[in-house]
Amino acid sequence: MTNLLNLESTTKPYNPQEWQRGYESQPNEYAYEIDEIEGEIPRQLKGTLFRNGPGLLDIGGTPIAHPFDGDGMVNAFYFKDGRAYFRNRFVRTEGYVRERQAGEILYRGVFGTQKPGGWLNNAFDLRRKNIANTNVIYWGDKLVALWEAAEPHRLDPYTLETLGIDYLDGILQPGDGFAAHPWIDPSCELDNGAPCLVNFSIEPGLSSKITIYEIAPNGKLLRRYAHSVPGFCFIHDFAITPNYCIFFQNPVAFNPIPYVLGFRGAGECIQFQSDRPTQVILIPRNPPHKEVKVLSVQSGFVFHHANAFEREGKVIIDSVAYASLPQVQPDSNYKEVDFEALDPGQLWRFTLNLSDNTVENKLLESRCCEFPYVNPAKVSKEYRYLFLGAAHNSTGNAPLQGMLKLDLQTGKRQFYSFAPKGYVSEPIFVPKPNANAEDEGWLLTLVYNAAHHRSDLAILDGEDLEKGPLACLHLKHHIPYGLHGSWSDRYFGEQL
Ligand code: CO
C-alpha cells in the first residue's frame, strides 16, 4: 500500500499537501540582510524589488475563504554591490488594523470571506474592505500598494511603513477605484517621448464606466478620459499601444442578490457565460478619445495581458486566456482545488483588424502559464521575448513551478523548473544597465520552497534560463504565494 501511494505521488511533479503550505499565513514582519545565498548576486543589479500579496490567510485562526481576500503584505528586496536586504510589512489598512485588534473577522471579503454568525450577520453589509494586496509600484516619487476596487495606500519605500490612503494629489476622489495593473508607456508620443503611467478604474453597474488616467513621472495628471460600456464589467487588467487602451470585457453575468442577502461574496456571484463572446474595447489615447472601437472575439476568460502593439493598421495583443473562468466555488476549500479538473491558462495572440473589425486568434503556448512579463522598454511596442510562470508538465493544469521564456520571432522556448519542491511567482525582468539585446537582463522570481517551508528569491539570466539560477537567496521564513510586484532602479535599502 505504501509503495502504491509513493508511486501515485511521483506521477505528479508536485505534492498537493506541500503546495498547500505555501498558503499558510505569515503574520511576522522581518528586516535583515540575506546571508544565505547560493551562487552570486550580480554586482550590477542595483535597485529595489517590491512585491505584494496576501500575507494573512486566516484572521485569529479562522481561515478566509479565498487568498484574494487576504490582507496585503508588501515585501522588498534591496540590491546593491552584490548584497541584498529584505523587509516585509503589512499594509496598515483600516480593516487590517481593526481586525488585528479584534482578533476576528469583521468584514466580508469580495471572494467569499464572511463574518461569523451566518447570513443574518452578513446580510446588507456591503462595506468594502480595502485590502491593498494586489500590486505595489513606485511612481511620481511615491510607493503605493494597489487593490483595484479602492484607493491606493501610500508606503514609505525605505521602511514600508503605511502612510495612509493616497489620492495621488487629487487625481482620485474618496471611493474611487484604481486598478492594480498600471502600465508604464516607455515613450509616449503625446508627451514628446517621455514615459507615462497609464492606469484605469471601473465603476461597475448595469453599464460600466471605464476611466483612464495617464500620469507623468512627477505624479501630475496628463490626461483623464472615460467611456461607458453596456453591461457588467469584470476587468482586472488591460493593455496599451501608442494609440489605444485595450480592454477585454469578459462574458460574465452578475447576480448580486445572494451577496446582498449575505449568502455569498460578491465574487461568487459572477457567472461565466461561455456562449457569449468577449467584447474587445479599444479606447483612443489621443484627445478627444471619442472614436471607441468594439470588436467581438471568442476568447474565454482573460485576467492578464502580456503586451500589445500596432502593426500595419492592426492591433496585436497577447493574453493568457482560460477556456472558462476558474470559478470560486462557494463552500469549497481553495486549498483542496483539483488542478486537473480546471482549464489551464494558455497564451493566445489576438490580431485585431481595425479596417474590417475582424479578429484572428492563435494559440502561442499551450503549456499552463500565468503572470506574463516583458522587458519594460518593449511595453506597447513590437517585441520578441516573453517571460511567464509555467507548470512543470507541458500539458494540463497545475501549480506554476517553472520559468518559461518564449522567443516570439523563432518560436524557440527556454524552460527552467523548480519542481518538485519549488512553486514560483510572477517573473520580473530587470534589464542590465546599458543592455543591447532585449533579453539582456535578470529574471527575478520568488519561489516557495516546500523542502524547507521557506521562500527563496531566484535570479536567473534572461538570456539563458536553462542554466539555472545565478543566485538563490534563501529567506529565513516563507512568504505566502503573492500576486504582483515591480522593480525600481532606486535603492531604498539600508546603507550596507
Ligand atoms: Co493581476
Outline the structure in words.
Helix content is 6%, strand content 42%. By secondary structure, it is mostly beta strands. It has one domain. Strands 2, 30, 31, 32, 33 and 34 form a six-stranded antiparallel beta sheet that branches. A five-stranded antiparallel beta sheet has the order 1-7-6-3-35, with no helix packed on it. The site of cobalt (II) ion (CO) has 8 residues, from strand 22.
Give a concise summary:
With about 500 residues, the protein is mainly beta.
Essential attributes:
single chain; 496 residues; mainly beta; 6-stranded antiparallel sheet; 5-stranded antiparallel sheet; 4 helices; 35 strands; disordered N terminus; binds cobalt (II) ion
Spell out the blueprint of helices and strands.
Blueprint: H1 2-10, H2 16-21, E1 31-33, E2 37-39, E3 47-54, E4 58-59, E5 62-63, E6 72-80, E7 83-90, H3 94-102, E8 135-139, E9 142-146, E10 153-155, E11 162-165, E12 183-188, E13 194-203, E14 207-215, E15 221-230, E16 239-240, E17 244-249, E18 252-254, H4 257-260, E19 270-272, E20 278-284, E21 293-297, E22 301-311, E23 314-322, E24 346-353, E25 358-365, E26 369-373, E27 385-391, E28 400-407, E29 413-417, E30 422-424, E31 428-431, E32 441-449, E33 454-461, E34 471-474, E35 485-488
Antiparallel strand pairs: 1-7, 2-34, 3-6, 3-35, 4-5, 6-7, 8-9, 9-10, 10-11, 12-13, 13-14, 14-15, 16-17, 17-20, 18-19, 20-21, 22-23, 23-24, 24-25, 26-27, 27-28, 28-29, 30-32, 31-32, 32-33, 33-34
Bound molecules: cobalt (II) ion.
